[in-house]
Design goal:
three-stranded antiparallel beta sheet, 32% strand, 2 domains, mainly beta, single chain
């Protein structure tokens, strides 16, 4: 089974870089990366380089609204970067483990799918979840803060 890791769309990132409001109607915050790790850009699916600026925005990685459409903080390179994916983003996912969680086509959590997963087992876990017909997409989220990292789709 083929899977692909999907970054936040370039048009969305361009809008935030131009000052468009985030999911809470706020302007993006601009910060300088100090160490070059621990600041994963959700667009290039890599770490923001040390000394480079990045944006912090509130992001809701869903099309619609329902009680399951979580919103939270994410980081993005403040300067142009190339969209990452579809391969497993090794330099992006630097923690030892992440939450891997499946969602239905109506953007609701598929109960029983969320699990803290060792980074080296993420692809395997995604393929297991996609074997279920009720899983439309998967989120990779921080195991410590629940922040959205990227979406995973079939294909």
């Amino acid at each position: 089974m083929q899977i692909r890791f999907c970054p936040i769309p370039s048009e969305t990132v361009r809008a935030w870089r131009s000052g468009s409001p985030d999911a809470y109607g706020l302007a993006p915050e601009r910060v300088e990366a100090s160490v070059g790790s621990g600041t994963p850009c959700r667009h290039c699916l890599d770490q923001v380089p040390a000394g480079k600026p990045y944006l912090i925005v509130a992001h809701r990685p869903f099309e619609g609204l329902n009680p399951y459409t979580e919103t939270g903080p994410i980081f993005l390179c403040a300067e142009d970067c190339t969209a990452g994916g579809p391969e497993f983003p090794e330099r992006f996912l630097v923690s030892e483990q992440y939450i891997v969680r499946g969602y239905s086509a109506d953007e609701r959590i598929a109960y029983g799918t969320g699990a803290v997963t060792p980074t080296g087992k993420i692809e395997e876990r995604c393929k297991e979840l996609f074997a279920r017909e009720d899983i439309a997409f998967i989120h990779i989220r921080s195991a410590s803060n629940n922040c959205f990292h990227c979406r995973v789709e079939r294909g």
